[in-house]
Amino acid sequence: MSDRPHYIFGGEVIDVLRGSGIFASGDSVKKRAVSISTMDVNSFMRNIGGGGTGVDNEYSNQAGMSFDGMFSPYTTALTHGRLPHFESGSSSPNAQTLNPWNPNNILPTGDNRTEWMASGHNINFAVVGTGVGGSGDPEDFAFEKDFFQRQRVETENIRGIGFRAPMVLTGWGYDTAGNPVPADPNDSTKFHTSGFSDPSLWKTGPIDLRWNDTRKVWQGQEAHYLVKTTNIYTPAGFSFEVQRSTNRSQYARPSLSLKANSLADTTIHDPEKIAYDANSNNGGTFERLDWAGIEYPHYEAYIIRDTSSPTVGDYYNLWTDDCADCGHLANPCASGTNIVHGSSSVGKKVLIENPLRQALDVGDLGITINTGKTKKVNTGVFNGGSGSGAAVSLSTNANGVLSAVIDAAGAGYTYGAFGIVSGSICTNVSLTTGGAGSGVTSVTLSPTTGFAPSTSYGLSIYPNDSVADTELLPIHWLLAQEKKTTQIVSFVGANGGVLQTCTKLIQTDYASCEHCGEDSALINAFL
């Protein structure tokens, strides 16, 4: 084989006429198309170039490459003096179970007629062995022809052609946050209107695959995310006592009772940052959060950064670079350079699945992985619909029994109405209206008992034909959460009338508030 390529790939982006038909005023009769062909080198050199200026210059719009820019020969042999070769992998799936010439490693060496007839591959041709027709060599490089002659096929020392890395990919698709690319310049959640047909907009770059030296395969890099929670996973009053008793709540975590009507295009809403700023005494090592009146958004966490985020500087300093791992209140991220309260929330909001039921407080950091699943979430905003003016108050008496009072019936609820409760309470609300164009006439609640005593709750009322603003958010799995340092008493004793105590610091997944004996009144309130 000559060191000069005989044939090469040639390509360009050209304008082609659309199919015949009736065109409306302003329609383009042309569209851009990709043209790829193979030709010998001499023909390519004779035809390259031409007139035109700018993007229409024929030479600057033409591309060419020899086959070795995309392909490379290789062998499945485990050693070779010149060709790139396979290696023996472990921890399936590996290089052997993924071998296209011996799928799932099911074809034995030698007599493999039964296995080939049942589950052999369907690749037509490859170079194998040391020659053709010699003792022990294949009769033909076409697998079925060789099988016809010998009633067996070669499974080892296959010499084929593979893609050459790093491979370059060009086209449209989705980015690592699940957003379309190329995107509409005015809405990053939608494709560019010409994104499917205009190659100049396509994202182009090398494919970033990583070599797994255990399995001996190239694999996609699995990104992990540093996130900060904006909403607690477990409901208010969830107990963290021994045996996880469900009827006592003296160890309840902070609970946010007000839902923020956050739209898809708003900024990051970080309740912990708001609660921190609400206490003017916070600073240095002192920290006490004031949760009164703090709202929670419709998403459960936001992404601070991922494993692909660049590091600062050329060298990693073991003593200082970890301080760049911002996100918690003691080490806030620099405004404008990282994702913080008030920065853009587009592509940063996520939902959290917590399969291990790890304890989470509002503001906790966590390490997550994108499951690839998405779900629409109601942002808390409803638009339009028939009817307005209804107002209902919800409250509990001293025994924790919930009731409703219609403060204003409203009018115009042609298709009925529904209500959404605000506050740390779980009850179903059913509204009845008095017919076409009338207002709310009755409210049904279920359940009505077992709630905190003497507490008021809000109820937002919307027409049944109103339209909810929703946002499609990615679902992440929580892999690990922020640890908390807790001081515990390890010894209490008296010696000679002197009380002695010993303590130690431990790191835990969750630290409740201090509990000093049974609070009978509090316990009875939740029984």
Can you put this structure into words, describing what you see?
The chain is mainly beta and 527 residues long. The protein contains 5 helices and 28 strands. The protein has helices spanning 41-47, 113-119, 143-150, 271-277, 520-526, and strands spanning 7-17, 30-40, 62-66, 71-75, 159-163, 168-171, 173-174, 180-181, 183-184, 187-191, 203-206, 209-212, 217-220, 224-229, 258-259, 295-296, 301-306, 349-353, 365-383, 391-396, 402-408, 417-422, 428-433, 440-446, 456-463, 467-481, 484-495, 498-508. The strands form 11 sheets. Strands 14-17-18-26-19 form a 5-stranded mixed β-barrel. The radius of gyration is 33 Å and the shape is extended.
Main features:
527 residues, 4-stranded antiparallel beta sheet, mainly beta
Walk me through the topology:
Elements lengths: L6 E11 L12 E11 H7 L14 E5 L4 E5 L37 H7 L23 H8 L8 E5 L4 E4 L1 E2 L5 E2 L1 E2 L2 E5 L11 E4 L2 E4 L4 E4 L3 E6 L28 E2 L11 H7 L17 E2 L4 E6 L42 E5 L11 E19 L7 E6 L5 E7 L8 E6 L5 E6 L6 E7 L9 E8 L3 E15 L2 E12 L2 E11 L11 H7 L1
Parallel strand pairs: 15-16, 18-26
Antiparallel strand pairs: 1-2, 1-3, 4-5, 6-11, 7-8, 9-10, 12-13, 14-17, 14-19, 17-18, 19-26, 20-21, 20-25, 22-25, 23-24, 27-28
Q: Can you describe this structure in just a few lines?
A:
The chain has 527 residues and is mostly beta strands. Helices cover 7% and strands 35% of the residues.
Biggest sheet, in brief?
Answer: 5 strands, mixed, barrel
Number of DSSP helices? Answer: 5
The percent range for strand residues is 25-35%
Count of domains: 5
Q: Give the helix level as a range of percent.
A: under 10%
Task: Tell me how many strands there are.
Answer: 28
- How much is the radius of gyration in Å? 33 Å
Label the overall shape: extended
Structural class: mainly beta
| N-to-C span | 87 Å
User: Strand order within the widest sheet?
Assistant: 14-17-18-26-19
Uncertain residue ranges: 234-253
On the 0 to 100 scale, the average pLDDT is: 80
